[in-house]
Amino acid sequence: MAGGRKTYYDVQAPENEVKIVTGKFVTNGTSAPDGIEGVCGGNGSVTRTAAGKFTVVFDKDYPAVLYASKPTVVGAAGYESRLTSIDTGATGNVTGCKMEIWTSGVTAAATGTLTLDALADATDGDYVILNDGQKRYGFEMDKAGDGASLAADGVGATATITCDSRTNSADNEQFIISDGGRSYYCEIDTNGSGATVANTDIVIDISAATDTAAGSGVVVQAAIAAHAIGITAVDNLDGTVSLTQDNKGDSGNVANNIYTATTGAWAVTNFTGGTDPITGVDVWTNVDISGDTTAIDVAASVNTAINGTSIQITSAPPGVPDGTLDLTNDDAGAQGNTQQEVSGGTNLAVTDMTGGSAGDAAAADTTDYDVYLQFTMRESKLTFR
Length: 385
What we know:
385 residues, 5-stranded antiparallel sheet, rod-shaped
């Protein structure tokens, strides 16, 4: 320093400036992006790392990102984009970013189709079980119109006794019927002498009956009804007696035996047709279809029944009724995608409920969509004084 004056020398001093940088690339499905420009071009790069996910390396490092705009995807209707991270290097400078393209999905309610039978093709007790994602609702076809809940309560097994007249019968011969718990020996008594076989449980005294098969049937029904066994007997007035197990279910499907009653036309069939109640159903509804004729008629009755319950499924016939019903879950979402069930009938069928979506986000690949990036950067600048 001379004469009190300071001498200045040129020195290099760092200063910062704010700079807006942009970049662009074009998606290419599952392949590497192309059309890379701007901040991710040149020495930069864009790499697809997974479905809808990309890693962007800038053309140079930057001291800091002051603001990062949301990536813009042009031409991707229904798709969104977002930055998932700003990447830095060993020195702390910003080197790039990661981003993804994703779809919010389509919010939709699950749907299905129920196909009904005409009355002639239906069987009493046919049923459909609908699941709305919360509860299972059963709808039973009451073809007989008697209000019986065959599916909900189960069915008692049945058998038939065929009788013969007193003249064609032999005294002391036996047949055996079983209620599933024990067997009962029934002795035919043609002369009023009572039980003469030691193991007899029920005496069929036809000595004073009308000498016809129908007359013997009256006695058989009364004799069985007079004993506390788990079988209900009904006289068909034609020489046959119908038997029904009081305990409903498959356990009632047991064998009977004509045993020694081999004279004349006496016969007894095994118990069959017993079914257990359908379990796992929260609400049963009996649908009286006895007055219906066509499948369209039956569908109308079932439609009214479905919409008359608290099930979260709405039923409706198509624009031109055809014996089917369109089913739509009342709530959008995947919880409505449920399995449905039917049993019986000729054409009775139901599809599973499908297509329900709550619009959950999911990364997704796209093709030929332009992606634009924009960042406000802090950049170092060297000046001289």
